[in-house]
């Protein structure tokens, strides 16, 4: 029996683009554009890099800054005070991130990103002028609270890309952010205490004699100033329609593009989003604690289980790690994501980080080239694995919500991540200070205990990437 011919499918309704709406302009541009949106992603990368630089730039000189502020009574107590100073930025960011995410959903991504870069210019400079412990804490807290950049930029990087390019967009943000987090300490290490490091260029009676940690802050603020000016050419992506709320109306049936999707549920009840955020926050806690512990461990004396590095030595290691990160993201990550996907790549990179961390305390028995080779290789691999995890979980978050909830969703993610990162430096500083006092303990003496705790947080994050905890967004099933 011959089946009757099937009627042809109904044509897809045509989109209506509203004049003066930046979101419509971006959607129209995406439809006509072929290839990767290099211009927008370059802007995203530069802004991400500038906003990330001050976060960890203080770590190489944090030990010496606390000493010079004369707040610690003993050398063993420096790590305690350093932890709270390192945490102040993340506490500020954690308290304000949801607010900035909501603002970005209301007025647009561009103004929030531009204001965040401006806050770097002001408060990072003031931090370099700190002569009291309370002033350093206050400026770092305000820098974090007013730098609401991370939530809108992740939404922006998704919105300028076609679906098949979203992994690249998120990876650009995380690569630039990761490079800023890594190269920031390099800037701090090379430029802090210039009177001591470069006596032939700087004199004791100069401004850098009174403020020995101002030079790296000024350099970062100068770069942020250039980036702030360039924000004038940054296109907006948020839909802004008169009489409608960020919806692209369809001609046939007067049906909006968004109305074809199920009604939006509460973000807190969106388990694919929340499970990815929790996993992301655990990894963020680990990564921040790792950066602080690595910096404190390398500059501490060998009698306390460290490497007796100078801040310049630490900066050099982190610079090499940052360069490897750039090469990995440009040449390899897209293939890793294409082959493994965001979930499996996160799991593999987390598992491979564990033996690297476990090897660090045994490097104190090495010296010279026998120390440099494994230390540099371990730092490079750890950076590559960290950025793979962050990119994978970020992709899961941003694909679990529609556009009009993306800023708020990233705001929640930034808040929980910032609170984790606020706890990480304080907790790492306390554990590091305690570990230095138990060099001859029988159970994981000295810094062996510090790296054991680091590995425990890595294992927790790894477990959270498996079912039933992690709920996968529909498009990855």
UniProtKB/TrEMBL annotation:
One of its GO terms (cellular component) is membrane. It is a multi-pass membrane protein. Gene3D superfamilies: MFS general substrate transporter like domains (1.20.1250.20). Residues 40-473 form the Major facilitator superfamily (MFS) profile domain. PROSITE patterns: MFS. Keywords: Membrane, Transmembrane, Transmembrane helix, Transport. CDD domains: MFS_SLC46_TetA_like. The keyword ATP-binding does not apply. It is found in: Membrane. Its main location: membrane. It comes from the Eukaryota. The chain crosses the membrane at residues 41-66, 78-100, 112-131, 137-156, 168-191, 211-234, 273-297, 317-336, 348-369, 448-470. The keyword Transmembrane applies. PANTHER family: FACILITATOR SUPERFAMILY ANTIPORTER, PUTATIVE, EXPRESSED-RELATED (PTHR23504:SF19), MAJOR FACILITATOR SUPERFAMILY DOMAIN-CONTAINING PROTEIN 10 (PTHR23504). This is Major facilitator superfamily (MFS) profile domain-containing protein.
